[in-house]
Amino acid sequence: MFASQLRLQRALSNRPYPSPNTSIDSLPLPLSNYPRPNISMSTAIPTATSLTESALIPAQLSHVWHFIKLQDFHVFWSKLKSSDFVKGMSPETDIVKWEFKDGTVLEVKQEEHSAIDHYITYSIISSTPALSYSSVVSTVRCYPVTSGSAEGQTFVTWSANFSSDADAGVIEDARFKRKEALADLAAKVTEKK
Question: 160 has which bridge partners?
Fold first, then answer.
């Protein structure tokens, strides 16, 4: 070995990793002699943390909007066993407990409501069993179709914005549930009484 290589080897032996300025070609020993940094790669599938599902509901906006109240979701959503106001909360806060037929219980807080623009926004504030992500904010919005072959019907969107710790399974489950609920809404508003 040349003297310069020995000096480099001695200098590097006191370091756990080669200096960022050190050229790989100038390292005196094979790279396998140096410890590898402990870098863990995530096994999670990268995914967008927002989604929007939509449906064309064959009914007038005024009829569809009648069902879009957090406490009335059980009327159309077949997976819900009940949806009731949580008592004892502040009069300014609307919190509704959703009990699903599979035993899941969510408490949802109405964050926004507009009877003019026909939308509600809500967040989940508690869940049994616990959620695998930090938070989600969802919006259900209704639009009247005012022209074309679908005139007189209602276009409904149901969006969700999840925290960054929601994985692909969470997003796909939410997508499936929204599609199913929108299909249930369409069936409910068109059923004969």
Answer: 51, 138
Reported as a single tens digit per residue, the pLDDT across 115-153 is 999 999 999 999 999 999 999 999 999 999 999 999 999
Could you tell me how many residues make up the chain?
193
Beta-strand ranges (E) seen in the chain are 50-57, 80-85, 95-100, 105-114, 119-128, 136-144, 154-162
pLDDT averaged over the chain? 85
Within a 10 A sphere around the Cβ of 65, how many other Cβ atoms? Answer: 18
Q: What is the pLDDT of residues 13-23, one digit of tens each?
A: 555 555 555 55
Concatenated DSSP letters of 21-73: TS-GGG-SS-GGGSPPP--PPP-SPP--SEEEEEEEESS-HHHHHTT--GGGH
Radius of gyration of the chain (CA): 28
Q: What pTM, to 2 d.p., does this model score?
A: 0.75
**Torsions phi, psi for 43 (to 5 deg):** -95, -5
Q: Which two tokens stand for residue 88?
A: 């004892």
Question: Bridge-partner residues for 120, per DSSP?
Answer: 113, 140
CA 67 – CA 70 distance, rounded (Å): 9
